[in-house]
Amino acid sequence: MKYGVQLPSRSVPEWRAHNILYNDIRDTITQETSGNLITADGYNTIFSLLNDEYQNVNLFVKSKLGEIEQRLRTCQRLVAAISSLDSGSRNKLEDLQSTSEMTRDTNIYQLQCEVAKVSRDVQHLSRFAGAQFTGFRKLIKKFRKLAPKDGPQLHEFERLLNGSESFASIDFTSIFLELSLLYDMIRSGRFSPFKSLPPWTLNGPSSKPLETRLCQFDVRMVSTPAKTIYYWIHSEDIVQVQVSLLQNLSLLAGSDHSQVTRTTFYDDEEFDCAVRKREPAQTCQVELLENGDVSAKSRTVFCAPTGGIRHFCAATLSSKVEHKLYTGALTSKDLDSLDNNAKFALGWALSRQIKPRATVVSSRLRYETNFATTDAEIQHVWAVIDSDLVVQNCRNSLSKFPYHVLQIRFTGQDAPKWLEDMGKSHLMHPVSESFSSYHYALYLAQNKKVFWSSPSWAKILEKGEDIRKAPKPARQQRSKRSTQTLRRQSGSSSGGAGGGNILLNDTTANDSTRYWNEFDNPEDEDDENAFSVFVNDEDEELVRMMRAEALSQPLMKFSQTVRRSVRHVKQLLGLEFSTADEYPSNSPCSSETQSLLGTDRLSGTQYSPRLIPTDIGPDLETDNALVRTRLQHRENMMMAMLTTVCLTLAAIIDVMVYAILLSEDVEDLVVGAQVVLVVGLLLSAILATLGAMAFGLHNPSNWPSQVCVHGFWFAVMCFGVGGISWIVTT
Fold first, then answer.
1. Is residue 544 part of a domain?
2. Which of 31, 12, 22, 15 is closest to 49 using CA atoms?
3. Rounded to whole angstroms, how far apart are CA atoms 365 and 384?
4. What's the structural domain count of the chain?
5. Which of 23, 62, 221, 504 could form a disulfide with 4 if both were Cys (CB 3.0 to 4.6 A apart)?
6. Does 408 lie in the same domain as 312?
7. Residue range(s) defining the domain that contains residue 121
């Protein structure tokens, strides 16, 4: 399929108006290079179009990047606001139900919405930039194919396209790390300003060096019994996959640091682990890089698949022992001075007579999380993305893998639901169970003991197939109100015999006629060029919640003032003890109370106790539902209170007015008194209407409540109209 047809689907549907004019430029190249001849004007025409499209795309991408940065600044302000609310109420038990609670929940929900929008925009921007860059490369390739020579303009445009200021060279690392920090804050429920809380504090303090912690993660991932799934990821889709993983997993602290992971695989002469598709013995080492040079190096850890209950045995090796293991000079005497783990692991290696078979070097990004499945089974998930993967096999030949490799390991029988959904998306290419970096190294060495024939994944590499897949187009659901159907009635015309249609040659009298305008054509539902409006329901819900909060703030402040006044009077009368008297400093309850008030003694981080019972887990959709439920409950409570107050005041005013009308003669009242009575009846009607409107904003309730409220409103309106008529007529 030609790329001009694929471009709308590979790019972002909402931004398709900003796609490059691929078909127009391609046709221009074909016309100007007909017969393998091209004039100077043809060169100028082609590269003028290319430069114009490049500038348009570059400007649009930079503007979208500015919008993302603005959203991140909004997230920082929300985090600072939540942190200030937490620090202001952490020492007051009576403030746990104060007016700031609803503001805080609204800020958390708004923060989650902003983080979701940033994640979506980053994925869309990466997808859009990759699609446009591929389009430019294909146009350059077509020009080189048809033109007799390249020319200086082509080289200048290539330098512009691949330059540091190009949209194709945007680095999303800083945005990615900030998103990781925001997701960790939301999951942990601990909000602190970015300047006061480094990213690694959310994953727990650690005194171990960074390279050691990264190496220990790799060892845990290998040595824990778990199922493994491999995916290949194209370089154009890697940012989208990284952000998608952030929504479900936590980025390991320091994993973003410039580092190299070096893994050496060991196997016996029969390649037993490779044939049985088991995890082989291996040594792991992590090297930190500074300006391209190794600044720190972890100690080598040897993982041996010893089997049994332990499954794997891991031992830290010195450089001397590692060298002997690699060269095959290790003997049983060398094990005497080692610890028990090293003796057990290396003893297994000596008994199996294993040798190094391949070494893999890559830049690794690490994810990890814990969460509970629906059947309450605790499931652990690890994920690593290996980039710039270079394989050195036993023949000392080097080979760079063309794609990024995503390896996911999880405990339990079934994969998480989010992983199944990601595996079905267009971003990742699943590979068979026979693939691993170790198997890839053996395949390059043409090992006949392992591969009698080429596996399915090897055929893809040999043929150079494109693993990218076009995303499935999202079908736009149109409202039934956008189009109307008018059925003609055969007997509606006054002309013609038998009441037929006035157009005698019209054979579609009983067909339906559909109406549309230039922006809403019902026949264009599958047309990629049809005009569509994308609506985000989260914005409307957030605005509604903020309006409800603004309406309820005065009532909440009033109720808080009354509650504090009553509590203060009780304390003066000795009917209630204060918090300080109830929990003195030397009381055993003091430490528990301080813990509930928001002090985490382990991390030293201040956070609100209100998030303890609603700790945000990895599943953000579940947490969003909890926050929405709490906000909806408060909104319903405030609307019910407002309805009750308004209807009660309306009833009191009506009773007072009719008491005066029945006890006094209306004709004897002065004009001023009559005006006051009319104003009172009008005020009663307004209050009743306001109460009915507040009841309408309430969530759908049972029918007896609806009958009572609407019946009361109707009675107040009748009494008001009747009273005003009585006063005016007399």
1. yes
2. 22
3. 5
4. 4
5. 23
6. yes
7. 3-184
Mean pLDDT of 424-439: 87
Does the pLDDT value for residue 535 go beyond 80?
Answer: no
- pLDDT grade, residue 32 (50/70/90)? confident
Partners of residue 356 on adjacent β-strands: 266
**Which residues are CB-contacts of 286 (< 8 A; sequence separation ≥ 6)?**
211, 212, 214, 215, 218, 259, 260, 261, 262, 297, 298
Asked if residues 717 and 655 have their Cβ atoms less than 8 Å apart, the reply is no
d(CA 73, CA 603): 26
In this structure, are residues 522 and 512 in contact, taking their beta carbons and an 8 Å threshold? no
C-alpha to C-alpha distances, 387 to 2, 96, 233, 443, 614, nearest whole angstrom: 29, 48, 10, 20, 37
Q: Which two tokens stand for residue 521?
A: 């054509």
3-state secondary structure of 21: coil
- The Cβ of residue 515 has, within 10 Å, a number of other Cβ atoms equal to 11
- Rg (the chain; Cα; Å): 36
User: How confident is the model over 454-468, as a mean pLDDT?
Assistant: 85
Please state, in angstroms and rounded to a whole number, the distance separating the CA atoms of residues 224 and 219: 8
Find which of 506-515, 589-598, 606-615 is predicted with most confidence, using mean pLDDT: 506-515
Q: Which residues pair with 394 in a beta bridge?
A: none
Question: In this predicted model, what pLDDT tens digit does every residue of 401-424 receive, in sequence order?
Answer: 999 999 999 888 888 888 888 888
| pLDDT of 193 higher than 60 | yes
pLDDT band for position 131 (cuts 50, 70, 90): very high
* b/e 420-451 (16+ beta carbons within 10 angstroms → b): eebbeebbbbebeebbbbbbbbbbbbebeebb
List the structure tokens of 179: 């998103």
Secondary element (H or E) of residue 381: strand 378-393
Report the CATH number that the domain containing residue 259 is assigned in CATH. Answer: 2.40.320
According to the 3-state scheme, what is the secondary structure of 433-458? CCCCHHHHHHHHCCCCCCCCCCCHHH
Question: Which of 399, 430, 463 corresponds to the end of one domain?
Answer: 463
Round to whole Å and give the CA distance between 330 and 388.
Answer: 32
Q: What is the pLDDT of residue 98?
A: 46
**Is the pLDDT confidence value at 65 over 80?**
yes
Report helix angle 99-146 to 152-161, nearest 10: 160
The burial of 413, by beta-carbon neighbours within 10 Å (0-12 exposed, 13-18 middle, 19 or more buried), is given as exposed
Record the tokens describing residue 522, joined without a space: 């019902």
Residue 184 has pLDDT above 50, yes or no: yes
For 696, the token pair is 């309408």
Residue where a domain terminates, one of 401, 429, 463: 463
More confident position, 670 or 12: 12
Q: Which residue has the tokens 């009441």?
A: 499
